[in-house]
Amino acid sequence: MKFLLVFDFDHTIIDDNSDTWIVKCAPEKKLPNELRNSYRSGHWTDYMGRVFAYLGSRGVREDEMRRTMRAVPFTPGMVDLLGFIGKNKEFFDCIIISDSNTVFIDWILRAADFHKVFDEVFTNPAAFTSTGYLTVQNFHTHHCAKCPKNLCKRKVLEEFLDKKLEQGASYTQIVYIGDGGNDLCPVTFLKKGDTAMPRQGYTLEKKISQLSQDLSPVECSVLVWSSGVEIMSYLKLLLKE
């Protein structure tokens, strides 16, 4: 009996957006208007590449970025939840699928000693160049019309489960914990015995609710949360069953 926990990162594990949080490193803690206005819908990673290039050109280096990122607050109750999962790893496989990047997620999880809770992290690859600039690439290519061009979370989840099946592993239940519009695609992939946990008041909850109103509800159970403690209560119930 094993459960798969799938987490988003921004506004789910942490209580902010890691990509916008890094702007605190910029001169006067803001970006020039022409850079801010250069974002095109569905091309967030390309935009962040330009933001990182700008920060590099203004002399912002790795140490300062790391210090800034480590100050991001965790979402209420998330520290308790991740501590609980860490103590019960024999029951839970735990992955992150996020539109952030490898560098930011690694810094934040390691600083809080939560990196061992997660079996795998699927996010946009980032690295520092020899000149000290942070660069980021798209996670993969896909053909899903609903998702941003760099990441379809449903495709990531499907490929992860296929790989696990090849290794002879399957899950009693998948629990998907997220908040954003790009979490809807993987949630629509979940089956009757699975559970989607959208964060209260955020886009994912609204989109799931809209599907019900349109009479095309998701197949899985839906449990709304506002604190990691509520997620932990649900996981404790699963272990009792």
Describe this structure in words.
Helix 9 links the parallel strand 7 and strand 8. The protein has a domain of 155 residues: 3-Layer(aba) Sandwich (Rossmann fold). The chain has ten helices and eight strands. The mean pLDDT is 95. The N and C termini lie close together (10 Å). With 241 residues, it is α/β, with parallel strands linked by helices.
Show the helix and strand layout.
Elements: E1 3-7, H1 18-21, H2 33-36, H3 44-57, H4 62-69, H5 78-87, E2 92-101, H6 102-111, E3 120-124, E4 126-128, E5 134-136, H7 153-166, E6 173-178, H8 184-189, E7 195-198, H9 203-213, E8 221-222, H10 228-240
Parallel strand pairs: 1-2, 1-6, 2-3, 6-7, 7-8
Antiparallel strand pairs: 4-5
Task: Please sum up the structure shown.
39% of the residues lie in helices and 16% in strands.
Q: Regarding quaternary structure, how should these chains be classified?
A: single chain
Which outline best applies? globular
Structural class: alpha/beta
* Radius of gyration over all CA atoms, rounded: 18 Å
Helix coverage percent: 25-40%
Major sheet details: 6 strands, parallel
Low-confidence stretches: none
**Approximately how much beta-strand content do the residues carry?**
15-25%
**How many individual helices?**
10
For the secondary structure, the number of strands is 8
With strands numbered from the N-terminus, the spatial order across the biggest sheet is: 3-2-1-6-7-8
**Second CATH tier, the architecture of the domain at 2-15 and 74-123 and 149-239:** 3-Layer(aba) Sandwich
Q: What is the typical, i.e. mean, pLDDT?
A: 95
| N-to-C order of helices and strands | EHHHHHEHEEEHEHEHEH
CATH class bucket of the domain at 2-15 and 74-123 and 149-239: Alpha Beta
CATH domain fold name of the domain at 2-15 and 74-123 and 149-239: Rossmann fold
Query: Gap between N and C termini, in Å?
Result: 10 Å
CATH superfamily of the domain at 2-15 and 74-123 and 149-239: HAD superfamily/HAD-like
Protein name: PHOP2 phosphatase
Organism: Nothocercus julius
Binding site for Mg(2+): 8, 10, 179
Family: Belongs to the HAD-like hydrolase superfamily. PHOSPHO family.
